[in-house]
Amino acid sequence: MDGAVYQEERLVETTELGERLALLRLRAPEAVRSVQQSLVRHGQLTAATAYLASDGRLELVDGFKRLQACRSLGWPALRVHVLQLEDAQAKAAVEALNEQGGLTELEQGWVVRSLYREDGLTQPQIGQLLARHKSWVCRRLMLVELLDEAVQADVRLGLLAARTAVAIARLPRGNQQAVARLVARRGLTTKQTEQLVAALLAAADEGERRGILDAWAEGRVGPSGGRGARPPRPPSHPALRIVMDIGLLCRVAARLEARLLERPLSSLGAEGAATVRCGLEGLRPVLELLLQAVERSVGGAKEVAR
Questions:
Q1: Is residue 134 part of a domain?
Q2: Which of 190, 195, 113, 181 is nearest to 153 (CA)?
Q3: Of residues 218, 236, 237, 238, the one with CA closest to residue 228
Q4: How many domains in the chain?
């Protein structure tokens, strides 16, 4: 937003406002209804924001729910502030103008992916434009690159919450749609989805994963309301929780090692290799800190044993 200049506020006909950047935002039907009710009661309290795109069209940057609500009400025009921005700067403005209200992680990922794929910016350039660390950019890009497009479409349609989709993104792409359908059909909360995903990731083989999915689908675990319907509680003793985490980490590490050894990164294509390499670079400091904690703990245990 640095260097952006507000022009004089205009009254713009709703038909003249483009919504190209609406793909970067979520518009839940209930949120649009709330904005519509506010417009009816109070009028338009704040102006929307737009910019003059490179093709000469006035494109909305912020105020998509207001625009949709105005059109539903049959209002012919909307008060708009026009910013002097380049196309890539306008996408950065989507994030900056919603810094207080907060975009979801998925929306942030859509902004990053659009700048990366459509505008051809590198991840460091995106970080500079958004005033974010390169690791933040990498995480958001990996989120949307690894999340199945059908699951992202479910979020846009309001069938899944954005936070729920983020939980599902931890699974391999081939398993995400089935889990998303189960979550929507059973009305699982984000927390319950996270429990389901954790159980699937910890499963030893495909047979165990199928059993977990069947149990949740049949209501033997999950929100069916009866006794025994909740997912199993984790062990209460701290030692057992640590041992379970060690087992989970060993299985995930073995799976990651096998995937890295089965093919060179160059076989993933330039974009895929860059995304994976960025993720691996972010993993190194995490593993170093974990190794330090392990060495401290093992050293302390030896001292106690003496």
A1: no
A2: 181
A3: 218
A4: 1
pLDDT tens-digit map of 2-14: 445 556 788 999 9
pLDDT digits (tens, 9 = 90+) for 216-253: 998 887 665 443 344 455 556 677 678 767 877 777 77
- Residue 66, domain extent: 1-101
CA distance 175 to 181: 11
Which residue from 276, 274, 278, 275 is spatially nearest to 262, judged by alpha carbons? 276
CATH code (residue 72) = 3.90.1530.10
Q: Look up the pTM and report it.
A: 0.71
190 Cβ contact list (under 8 Å, min separation 6): 161, 163, 164, 167
Cα angle at 52 between 140 and 3, to 5 degrees? 65
Which value, in Å, is the radius of gyration of the alpha carbons in the chain? 24
Give the count of alpha carbons within 13 A of 82, CB side only.
18
222 belongs to a structural domain: no
